[in-house]
Amino acid sequence: MWGALWATESYTPAQQIVIDGAAKDIVLSGSHLIIGTDNGSLQVYDYVQKRFVKKITIPKITDFMGDVIPARVSSVDYMDGRYLLLSDSGKGGYADLRIHENNATRQILSAEDKKPVIKARFVDKDHVLLGYLSNEVSLMELGSKKELYKFQLSESKFSDFALNEDRSLAAFSCESGEIAIVRIKDGKVLKRLSSINLDNVYKVDIKRDYVVGAGQDRRASWYNWKTGKGGFFQASFLVYAAGLSPDASRAAYAMDEQNNITVYNLGLKSKIAVLKGQKSTLNAIIFKDNSTLFSASDDNTVMMWQIK
Q1: 128-150 per-position pLDDT tens digit
Q2: The Cα angle at residue 41 between residues 31 and 130, in degrees rounded to 5
Q3: What is the rounded distance in angstroms from the CA atom of residue 23 to the CA atom of residue 35?
Q4: What is the mean pLDDT of the chain?
C-alpha cells in the first residue's frame, strides 16, 4: 500500500442524467449510455446529443408477497443491434433473460428454466456469459439456450464479473476476495488472484493486463493479472464500485461515505482527482476514455464526469 496524496483537482458532474428509476447497471456503446433500472426498463441515453433515444420496458412481476411490482433490470448490454436485459422473475430467485432486436423483445430464460443468474453480458451477438449466484460461470448460446460449459469457480457467493476490451477474458469476483481470470472461449481459469482483498469484492474491472477490485475490507485493489502482483489504496469506507480506463493507466474507486469517487494514476500510485456530487451508494463506474467517465448509484441520477 502507498500513502495517499492529495488530489490535484476536485470535479462536479459534467452531466446529470435523470432516469425513470434507480440505476442497477450501465454500459457504454459509442455515444450511447445503456442503463438498466429497478423500474423494469432499459433506457438508452445519447450523451453527445444529451437526450434519450430508446426505452425498453418489460412486464411487471409478482413478488413473494403477492404484490405486482416492476422487475429489477440488473444487467444490460448491447451488441450488433441487440439489447440484453437480465431481470428478476419474481419466482424462487430465478432470472429472466430477454433480447430486444428490431423493436421486438423475446424471452430466452424464464423462472421455468430455474437459473439463478445474477449478471449477463454479450460475448458476441449469439453468445452470452452468465454469472450465477453460486459463483458458477457459463457460456450460453442464445439460439439453442445450450450452455457450452458451466462450472463453479469457488464455493464463495458470486459478486461481479467484467469483460476485457475484446471480450476474450472475464474477471470474476466473489465473497472470499478472490478474483479469477477466465478465458471465455473454453472457460479455463488462467489466474486466481487472492493476495490483496480479504473479504467480498463487490465490483471488478479488467483492461489490458490490469484488474481492479472494490472491496468490503475498504481496500481499493489492483493487480497485474499476468504477474499476479498488485497493491491497494486504503479507503475510509466500504469500496462499492471500481473502474479502469481503457489503457489501464487510471483507476477510479468509491472511497468514502460521502460517495465521492477518487481517480488514481496507477503507474504513479497517486491520487489525481476527486469527483463530488454522487447522491447515493455507488454501484457502477465506467470509463469512456482517460478523461470521460460515468457513474451510477442507487438513485435516479447517472453522472457523467470530465477530468483532465
Answers
A1: 999 999 999 999 999 999 999 99
A2: 80
A3: 7
A4: 96
Is the sign of the CA dihedral 14, 17, 18, 22 positive or negative?
A: negative
Cell of 128: 452470452
**CB contact at 8 A, 174 and 154:** yes
What confidence category does residue 3 fall into, taking pLDDT thresholds of 50, 70 and 90?
A: very low
Given a contact cutoff of 8 angstroms between Cβ atoms, the answer to whether 85 and 95 are in contact is no
Q: Which three cell numbers, joined as nine digits, stand for 75?
A: 444487467
pLDDT tens per residue across span 211-247: 999 999 999 999 999 999 999 999 999 999 999 999 9
CB 9 within 8 A of CB 307: yes
**Sign of torsion over alpha carbons 283, 17, 166, 140:** positive
Cell match 456530487: residue?
277
Q: How far is Cα 69 from Cα 49, in angstroms, rounded to an integer?
A: 32
Taking the C-alpha atoms of residue 115 and residue 123, their distance in angstroms, rounded to an integer, is 19
Q: Write out the E strands in 40-196.
A: 41-46, 51-57, 61-62, 68-69, 73-79, 82-88, 95-101, 104-109, 117-124, 127-132, 136-141, 147-152, 158-163, 169-174, 179-183, 188-193
Q: Tell me the three state secondary structure of residue 113.
A: helix
From residue 253, how far is each of 58, 69, 71, 100, 225 by CA, in Å?
32, 32, 28, 32, 19
Domain extents in the chain: 9-306
Task: Return the number of other C-beta atoms located less than 10 Å from residue 145's C-beta.
Answer: 12
CATH superfamily ID and name for 9-306 = YVTN repeat-like/Quinoprotein amine dehydrogenase (2.130.10.10)
Cα–Cα distance for residue pair 193/206, rounded to 1 Å: 13
The span from the CA of 215 to the CA of 234, in Å, is 10
